[in-house]
Amino acid sequence: MADRTLRGMRLGAQSMQSEEGVEFAERQRAKYRTDDGETFDVIFAADADLPDTWESPKSGREGVLLSPDGTPIPIELGEAKAARTHWDMLLERRSRDELEELLQERLDLLRARRGGGERLGA
User: Fold this and answer.
1) What is the rounded CA–CA span in Å between residue 31 and residue 62?
2) Residue 17: is its pLDDT beyond 50?
């Protein structure tokens, strides 16, 4: 019984002495290999999608999923979407001329609060 996995078992409701009334979950074994040649197995549920990479429990190195014949399965890289910066989002809402005008208004306001027309950083 120890070599199989229980799914949906109610603890205390049934005796663990026998396998009567126990339904075992289907499993699949995935094989991974690290860059240094270490291979290791990971057990997943039969209906789980297998990840392309997995960390080795012994060395901590990342292993690549192997096909049944032992060759590494190529990792499919999705399209890398460039991260939008604050500046990009700002330019979506306002033109550069509008931004220059707003900047000048804010600088004039700050200069007026400081009590003079001196330029910042001058």
Assistant:
1) 12
2) yes
